[in-house]
Amino acid sequence: MSACSIDDPEEDEKINTISKEYERLFMLLQMNNVYESNRFHEILYTIKKEIKDKSPNEYRKVFDKTIIDAIATELNLKVKMVNSVLDYNRFSQLSYCTSRWFYYLLARVEDFICSKLQIQPENDVLTMSVVHSNKKGYHIEHIFSINEENINYFENEDDFMDRRNSIGALLLLKGSDNISSSNEPYKEKLETYSHGPVWARTLSSSFYHKNPNMKKFNSELRSSAGVQFTSFDKKFTPESMEERTKLLFELVKIIWA
After folding, report:
1. CB-based contacts of 184: which residues, under 8 Å, 6+ apart?
2. Of 23, 119, 159, 163, most Cβ neighbours within 10 A?
3. Which residues of the chain have pLDDT under 70?
4. What residue spans define the domains of the chain?
5. Phi and psi dihedrals of 172, rounded to 5?
6. 237 phi, psi to nearest 5 deg
7. What is the pTM of this model?
């Protein structure tokens, strides 16, 4: 590895840091919707040269600059117009996708929430990201079923069909749960969600009952980012979706940005 010298005393730290930074680079490019496979290989080659002879605590600066440059290039912007490695407007445009990175995003968020609440995840990140068999695998669930009540929340049916795919209206469910809840009314979906992964369970008020770790986590989020987990027991609307998107964005920022 070019970042390491012969008998490098920081070799282990460098390898560990670089692997995490590469994962972060890949995910941030995807979440900014600027990932392009050929360009990605060029970026890796550039980074390889940039980190040579640098210490691990200097890597983040190199990777951040690379991410910002990539965003500016792909969006045809001046670098000074890109203010951060992850922008809410770009993130909020993420929508239903069957690519493995999208499952990984939701699985990492699930794992992070569980770690903050000190509870055991329903499954590990790898399983939730790559196992998609009908009964035991994970699938992306649309909170908005296709029915007249949900369509009426939107300007028209085309608007509904497009926006029901938004990231704030999606979650992971195990295969059989996803199939059983596919077109149920929202109130019936909540029953399924209440036994699913945590990101789904937070839609129900029952999850918050006698849950001091959630209360503590919500307090932290309100103080640092002005968001919090909220239940939606009666209905799930476009406003609910936007609230979930903002919350998800802040969680993703903690994990990657």
Report:
1. 145, 192
2. 163
3. 1-10, 176-182
4. 11-85, 100-256
5. -95, 135
6. -120, 175
7. 0.91
